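Re: folding output
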Amino acid sequence: MMKEKAKKYLSVAIDWLLYLSVAFLCVSAVWLLSQVFLFSSFSVPTDSMTPAIVPGDCVLVNKVLRGGRIFNLNDAFDHKPLEITRLRGTGKFRRNEVLVFNFPYPERWDSIGFDVMRYYVKRCIALPGDTVEIRNAHYRVRGYRGELGNIDSQNSLARYMHSERNREEMIKGGSFKAYPLDSVTGWTVQEFGPLYLPARGDTVRLDRHHYAVYRNLIEWEQRKKLTAHNGCFYLDGSEINHYVFTHDYYFMGGDNCYNSQDSRYWGLLPEEYIVGKATCIWTSKNRVTDEICWDRVLKKIK
């Protein structure tokens, strides 16, 4: 009699363990799929987006807007050439939206790379097809009359750079000269552009200026070396005089203009590198006391 009861209890226990295991696997699968296709959470370690986002904030990222990305994780971790496919989304990215993306220059400044574990959060200043420029430290997009980025920070930077001494300090610190750090353009964070942001299908004529600003993009798209010699341009040894882009590109800027490693310094961002739109701060911790900052919890990102 006791053996029969023991067998019955054991059978029930096994059934419950199987049920809980299946339930756990289902929940895990749903969570994983949600992380890949719907949303993700990212912790912000720097002050480059202050005051909108501060160190210790955890932001929720909407992937549905432009569609989740699918790529080979093994290739990403091995730093192999990566094919990124984006699913169909519900809309498009807009100027002034805060986006999370894989930093495109994780290893070297002269070629675009991909680090699956290195993410940046910045504000979208310009879209594919825009012409962006910086005048007196303020962002401008031709044909667009709205404000772009953190105007208070841009005003402050403009006032700061009115002093010759301050400009010299920025030059010494390596934060004054801007992309592509070439004498052909001579661009700075005070005066930059105009720079056209290629959209898929756009054609540009190659000259010294376009070679300087688009070389990294062309080499990334073609996975071939672009060189210049005696006024001529060669892609993997074959001479070309124009180029048709196959990807869309964005210009990203941090709200903290004094301390932000953004497109002013490293150039344009391929759309495939964008994870999604940062929508809200779902939680936040004081990095000194480790206490929850309740005034920032569930705060919408504007």
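--- second protein (sequence, then structure) ---
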Amino acid sequence: MHSFKLSNFVFFVSILFITVQVGAQGVVIKQDSAAASQPLKVGIAGNEPFVFNDLDNPRGIAIEIWEDLANEKEWTFKYVPFNTVNAALTALQNKELDLVVGPISITSDRVTKMSFSQPYYQSSLSIASRADGKGLWSRIKPFFSFSLLVAVGIFVFILAIVGTLFWLAEHKASPEQFPKDPVKGIGNGMWLAIVTMSTTGYGDMAPITLRGRIIAGIWMVVTIIFATSMVAGIASTLTLSGLGTSTIRNAEELSTKKAATIAGSPAVAFLKEYSATVIQTSNLDEAMNKLKNKTVDAVVYDQPQLMYFLKVNNDENLYIAKAEYYKQGYGFAFPLTSPLVYDVNRTLLRLAEEHVVQEIIDEYLGKQK
């Protein structure tokens, strides 16, 4: 009796195990069959070197990685090109596509609306600017700034105060040097303050009263410190204006400057964070043309695209800052409930382990140091 129950139990467990296995295999088969039953609609969008806008011969880093992956899985597909990444992602959310291939940044906002593969490339934002030297106006412009005019105004006001003190102390004892007329007397006092400050000492004027000499002594000590600081500031301004360029080396230098980027890029929020004036464009070529034409001061976008642009155009007047911001991964985008994500991730891992992904990247960008 016991042996009969035990055998029934073993049989039941065996049947249950086989059922679970068949069910699990059915899910995987369903994924593959879903991909293989009809061609996948693959949206492609983005900039070179990840996607080249050539309908007859689609190529680029993202395209080649996807095609190697699709060949591994024996999937058939057809490309649907889009002018912008945002347009492709909108079509994906509207269930017009099975996935989007390109330099798609994996962001916290996007993962709430769609699924992503694991990153096939780690990118970051960089700053491109001109490396041209400053012209004559740029060199002398600091001397016509509002802050300098304010400083000059304050200096003249201080001279007027010192000149008035000299006149009050000296005009009775030395009317020849400091006439009783306030305008002429204070004017002479200001002249004495200037020649004292500059250590020129023409000898045409000098205080003769004790109060006048005390004022002159205090003014000499004050002007030694003041003149030294002023001369150092002028020298620094001349040096910076002479050697400076329009090159932007870090994000802090973007403040109040005009910077272009691609509409919808994470760089838009980045530029607003650093108080830059954001100029949004439809593509990178348009943004870089604005930089060359001096319509904007910088272009902020993903580093590999900027590096590739510089490599292809070989423009020595463009400079890409070494600073990197907003490190982010590029992946393939899918609808939230897509059954393709698992197979894509597994195949991507294998291609990465076999160095296929890195070889494709090196082909376009060169070996990264």
